[in-house]
Write a structure and sequence with these properties.
Blueprint: H1 7-17, H2 21-30, H3 35-53, E1 60-68, E2 73-81, H4 84-87, H5 90-106, H6 118-134, H7 139-157, E3 163-164, E4 167-171, H8 172-183, E5 188-196, E6 202-205
Antiparallel strand pairs: 1-2, 2-5, 3-4, 5-6
Helix pairs in contact: 1-2, 1-3, 2-3, 3-8, 5-8, 6-7
């Protein structure tokens, strides 16, 4: 039984997702007026749309700073997009601010798993392998255990794979892809630096260049 889709339902869905009016209405019709199911449908559509834009050059963007805890923690983050027009939008600047806040709170060490250095990878794998063997696990399942623990390591230490601090039901990568779908341009977190008073600083850079100058 299909539910009647009202203007108020469309308005609420738009406010919660930022999607276009017709996309919201279509999602509500397809899900029988179920708001949460419509949100999920729009998110899936957005991730597919973002994937199509992934190869496009990101030659603009901005560098944003964020200071937290009364000057105890500071973050500099560079996020790239395709045009100055999008870089100046409130949505893009809010995204940059939220990502900087996330870096301050979640302390990522790398942007993505491609940036994890070989020495760090080998050290983590060695530790997890030795732990599994010492606990008496059979040799034939040790590698599966190591693989599972490495997935957890990436989720804890790679910015794109961390649960987003403002909505832990989504990863940072999902948040970024949804922004790409909403604003219609490819985006890329290029680098960040996190400083903590009296502690170690973290500097991370994506492995590929932000744009091809040619």
């Amino acid at each position: 039984m299909s539910a009647t889709v009202t203007a108020g339902m469309v308005k609420e869905l738009r406010e919660r997702t930022g999607a276009g009016m017709m996309d919201c209405k279509k999602a509500l019709v397809e899900t029988g007026g179920d708001l949460e199911a419509a949100i999920d449908a729009l998110r899936k559509k957005g991730l597919a749309s973002a994937a199509k834009k992934a190869g496009r050059a990101t030659s603009d963007g901005l560098v944003i700073s964020y200071i937290h805890g009364g000057g105890k923690i500071g973050v500099l983050l560079e996020i790239n997009c395709e045009t100055d027009f999008v870089a100046r939008t409130d949505d893009f600047q809010q995204l940059a601010h939220d990502l900087s806040l996330h870096v301050a709170a979640s302390q990522p060490r790398f942007i993505g798993r491609d940036e994890v250095t070989d020495d760090v990878l080998e050290r983590e794998k060695r530790i997890h392998r030795e732990q599994a063997l010492e606990s008496g696990k059979p040799e034939q399942i040790v590698e599966r255990i190591v693989e599972g623990r490495m997935s957890k390591f990436f989720a804890e230490n790679c910015l794109l794979e961390q649960p987003f601090v403002k909505d832990t039901g989504r990863t940072v990568e999902e948040v970024l892809k949804e922004a790409i779908a909403k604003l219609g341009e490819n985006m890329r977190i290029c680098r960040f630096a996190r400083f903590q008073l009296g502690g170690d600083s973290t500097v991370a850079m994506a492995s590929a260049p932000a744009a091809d100058p040619s």
